[in-house]
Amino acid sequence: MAAPALALSQQIMYSEEEYLRLENDAFEKSEYFQGQIIKMAGAAPNHNRVKENVIGEIYPVLKKGKSCRSSSSDQRIHIPANSLYTYPDIVIVCGPNKFSKLDRITIINPSVIIEILSASTTDYDRSLKFKLYRDIESLQEYVTIDSRKASAQVFRRMPDNQWILADDAFSLTESITIRTIGATLQMADLYEGTENVSNLLPPSEE
């Protein structure tokens, strides 16, 4: 996701209704969490390139399946269990959209969330953000893809509601699988057109 900036105020607490009213009139996106409004900064070229590549790779799969649809970072989601409003880089919903009680824009039932990591968001997306996402009952997989180096992880919810690291890749010769939509993504395709992206593992000799 694009980098979260500092909260607008450490003193003022906002209701969800106030946040939505301000957000719907704003030129820049902000998150909301436990009364705080948090500005989101812009993304770097590699971040945007990886995001567009992922969308391009999953689109044909989703088109064939018909029941799942993807949205990019303009789609706001809400987690009623912990109050978070945010804009994931990519959201996949399988089945009909379900919306927040406060509007018909914000969805609450993503099946897959994909975040593109950058220097300023890696810790947040892998720790607190992931913890908050796990409160989404409909969420089946959480995917993180680094924009600076060949690195991707797929976390999956198990039948006992525990989360596991189900797949990972650390080389442009590898791939990851998003089981919810039946898509296997080649790392080389995800990083096509990026600059200064390095392998974490040497290329396979096979």
TrEMBL record:
<dbReference type="GO" id="GO:0004519">
    <property type="term" value="F:endonuclease activity"/>
</dbReference>
<protein>
    <submittedName>
        <fullName>Uma2 family endonuclease</fullName>
    </submittedName>
</protein>
<keyword id="KW-0378">Hydrolase</keyword>
<dbReference type="InterPro" id="IPR011335">
    <property type="entry name" value="Restrct_endonuc-II-like"/>
</dbReference>
<keyword id="KW-0540">Nuclease</keyword>
<dbReference type="InterPro" id="IPR008538">
    <property type="entry name" value="Uma2"/>
</dbReference>
<feature type="domain" description="Putative restriction endonuclease">
    <location>
        <begin position="17"/>
        <end position="177"/>
    </location>
</feature>
<dbReference type="Pfam" id="PF05685">
    <property type="entry name" value="Uma2"/>
</dbReference>
<dbReference type="InterPro" id="IPR012296">
    <property type="entry name" value="Nuclease_put_TT1808"/>
</dbReference>
<keyword id="KW-0255">Endonuclease</keyword>
